[in-house]
Design a protein that fits this description.
The chain is of the alpha+beta class. 32% of the residues lie in helices and 23% in strands. Strands 2-11-7-9-5 form a five-stranded mixed β-sheet. A two-stranded antiparallel sheet has the order 1-13. A two-stranded antiparallel sheet has the order 3-6. The chain is globular, with a radius of gyration of 19 Å. The model has no long low-confidence stretch (mean pLDDT 96).
């Protein structure tokens, strides 16, 4: 078996890429040139990896890439939602398949760029695992809303296989599981619709 590394968060990630403070009201789904990842969507809508080309990501209204010079994201970047009403605080997503599209990270998020490229998906899945997330629980601050400071997140430890091929196998395994879950969810939804249609027909 190949060796695994365990390193401090700030040795693995550069956390100096800025996020913006655009609120939901400053975003739209119709048109724009820069997509903006909102922390609420990280918490509820997106999986461990965001497919920029195909997932629904709102646009920053009236903004162009010029407005976000040093803040444009690239594949492999991690975005952490640093605020939530519960312990989902710290949920992460990894940017993938951006294909030259401009993406930035919004309000209540922390951008973390791996200092060394890893297999796409590995960090997205790892940072959402209990093994990693448990490190964040004692660091969350607040009563009604829980938040994480950059300083605290940087104290956590990150584990990864040295071999990129092994990182890829792990990421692929979880990606396939996600795919299966989605397929079954669709089947389940169809069965529920079928059942309710039968019920309404049956007892007229």
């Amino acid at each position: 078996a190949n060796a695994w590394e365990q390193r401090k968060f700030d040795e693995v990630f550069d956390c100096t890429i800025p996020s913006n403070t655009l609120s939901r009201a400053e975003l739209n789904y119709e048109s724009g040139s820069v997509r903006n990842i909102h922390y609420g969507d990280i918490l509820i809508k997106y999986g461990s990896v965001v497919d920029v080309k195909n997932d629904e990501i709102p646009f920053a209204t009236g903004k162009s890439s010029e407005d976000f010079k040093s803040a444009l994201l690239q594949d492999g970047d991690i975005i952490i939602a640093d605020t939530a009403e519960d312990e989902t605080t710290g949920k992460a997503c990894e940017i993938g398949n951006s294909q030259g599209l401009d993406v930035v990270s919004g309000l209540h998020t922390m951008v973390c760029r791996p200092r060394n490229k890893m297999a796409l998906g590995y960090l997205g899945y790892y940072l959402n695992s209990d093994a990693y997330h448990h490190q964040l629980l004692p660091l969350m601050q607040g009563i009604k809303v829980l938040s994480l400071s950059r300083t605290n997140v940087q104290k956590t430890m990150v584990c990864y296989p040295q071999s990129k091929a092994e990182q890829q196998l792990i990421a692929d395994c979880f990606r396939n599981l996600d795919h299966l879950i989605t397929l079954h969810q669709r089947k389940l939804d169809m069965l529920k619709k079928l059942k309710s249609a039968c019920l309404s027909e049956m007892f007229i």
